[in-house]
Amino acid sequence: MRKKSDLPTKICPVCNRPFSWRKKWERDWDAVIYCSDACRTLAKK
């Protein structure tokens, strides 16, 4: 098992906070842009 610090991270363009890789994003990590549904909603406004 990997440590959380070893996982890849990205910066959310809406809230400017770092977020790390999740198992549910395994197949489409390259397409993940926002850290949460709330940030995705705010970006569309």
TrEMBL record:
<dbReference type="Pfam" id="PF10013">
    <property type="entry name" value="DUF2256"/>
</dbReference>
<protein>
    <submittedName>
        <fullName>DUF2256 domain-containing protein</fullName>
    </submittedName>
</protein>
<dbReference type="InterPro" id="IPR017136">
    <property type="entry name" value="UCP037205"/>
</dbReference>
